[in-house]
Design brief:
single chain, 252 residues
Length: 252
Amino acid sequence: MMNIHEMDEIEFISLLQKVSEESTLRYGSLKKALHISGIASSPNQVYSNDEIYAQLKKVESENGYVSQAIYEKSKCRPTIRGITSRFGTLAAACELAGVKFIPNKPKVGSEGKKKGKSYKDKQIIDALKSASKIYGGSLTIKQYKESGLKPSYMTILKRYHSFQVACQEAGVEYIRYNPRDIKIEQIATILRDILLTAGKLLTTTEYIEAGHSPHVATIYKHGITWVEAIELARQSKLSGELIQKSSETSDN
């Protein structure tokens, strides 16, 4: 590894970005990582992932499973809010901890109302299935939001308390985006959808300026160049025709 004192400004900023990304993945934010390391002080206790997993396992051992209501009743720490700020959802934290998670049962008469509109479970499941067909059979939270289908993501979350659980009920493959373990095949699928939406091949500059993810740096970490990543997306059966036409148009 290069000596930090020998780095130029660009190399040093790149290092800081990597540290920030890894800190967010491990501890929820760079600020929390600094607190844990002792570099910055915090008035509140910061829990490590292992400490959170231990609390979840404790609740499971006492109740047979974990739900939001049971965890809140246990008075364990951190709070549900602390867990969701780290992992996104309580269900995701339980999955990583190897703990059985069951969402709270909806209240009698609850139909997931929003702005006077009621949605039944079948309507939600049909929406998730329709969205998954758009994106090749699997689904991320971001993809569902971009699909524009109803009910909204928040309505689904209120009903099932976890988007992953909702997808399981619908028989849809849920993909939880994590740049640390994303596979090349997933990158190709994501790029395919982005190129289809753009209707053309994108340069790295266009891709970055549009704020797409995964980040170009994440793609490079898999040992492939931008051109190779685009080629993987072009090989997709669903996107080949459109991208090929786009290339032919740009050549004329």
